[in-house]
Amino acid sequence: MSDDSALKSAGILASLEPVVARLLDRHLAAAKPWFPHVYTPWSEATDYDGPLDGEPWRAGQSVMSPAVQDSFTVSLLTEDNLPSYHFEIATRFGRDGAWGTWVHRWTAEEDRHAHALRSYLHARRALDPVVLEEQRMAHLSRGFDSGRPGVLHSLAYVTVQEMATREAHRNTGKACGDPLGEQLTARIAADENLHMLFYRDLYRAALDLDPDAAVTALADVVCDFRMPGATLPGFQERSLRIAAAGIYNLDVHREHVLLPLLRTLGVWDRTDLTAAGDQARERIGLHLEQVERNAARFRSVFARMNADGDIGV
């Protein structure tokens, strides 16, 4: 980052800190404590092979469809990469003052997601635990880098990402066919929703602080958005099955993430943009049109996959 960019980022962080403090207070008042251990069906679990000399995992033990298994795998391995996400936001936002308090609180809340998911999935024998651990090691060894150049881009990314993750968790639970799994993913989605509300309202303040730069950063993120699990082994094949099952696809991304987010941020209603901001807003509009066209095209592909039994929903 250049000296000018660093100075600009520092100025944005300082200007937004009072908003961070206010939103942090609101978050702490709204957040409800919950405990991962209560979502694990301990009484139904059995020992695995190894020191306990239990039963090895076999594919037939899982009652979940391949698409749901894929979605749980992507969700869990994404949540596992928390150390990299913490490093990313701590480096960008800092560890002092209200920013630092938020960074650590966010990390503490996010940390329970992987613990809860892994215990539940192991107890249900829903996934191969050996393959899962091998994939966890491979994924975390790569780390995570959003590639975003500054504070506004980082804020825009986490705003979109938290909303997308909320939808992915919620829809995975609805599709899994297990009331306990649905309760767990709904609980995780509730955390993601509160995190999204924090970042969304913070970004609304950033739009007021520097409208052109904030709309431009948002356009860059929206038009090139990738989920944080995109570097997972086999992600493309998995994401196709997940999309075909309706758990998370372009329709979900457009209708339940981008459109409500842009509407709530008031992007279309701003009258304080210069030519640069208007061009960025136009890019967002053109991207939404392209997403809609791509979604329609994929719907026919998914219909064929469902008809051929290629996704196992």
From TrEMBL:
Q: Which cofactor does it need?
A: Fe cation; Fe(2+)
Picking any one GO biological process from the record gives:
fatty acid biosynthetic process
Q: Is Lipid biosynthesis among this UniProt entry's keywords? A: yes
Q: Where are the transmembrane segments?
A: none
Q: Offer a single GO CC term for the protein.
A: cytosol
Q: InterPro entries from the xrefs?
A: Fatty_acid_desaturase-2 (IPR005067), Ferritin-like_SF (IPR009078), RNR-like (IPR012348)
Q: Pfam families under this entry?
A: FA_desaturase_2
Q: Please provide the record's keywords in A-Z order.
A: Fatty acid biosynthesis, Fatty acid metabolism, Iron, Lipid biosynthesis, Lipid metabolism, Metal-binding, Oxidoreductase
Where, by residue number, does Fe cation 1 bind?
79, 110, 113, 192
- One GO molecular-function entry: stearoyl-[ACP] desaturase activity
Q: List residues binding Fe cation 2.
A: 110, 162, 192, 195
Q: How is the cofactor bound?
A: Binds 2 iron ions per subunit.
Q: Which PANTHER family match?
A: ACYL- ACYL-CARRIER-PROTEIN DESATURASE-RELATED, STEAROYL-[ACYL-CARRIER-PROTEIN] 9-DESATURASE 7, CHLOROPLASTIC
User: Quaternary structure per UniProt?
Assistant: Homodimer.
Name the family the entry cites: Belongs to the fatty acid desaturase type 2 family.
- Protein name, as recorded: Acyl-ACP desaturase
Source organism per entry reads Streptomyces griseicoloratus
Lineage of origin? Bacteria, Bacillati, Actinomycetota, Actinomycetes, Kitasatosporales
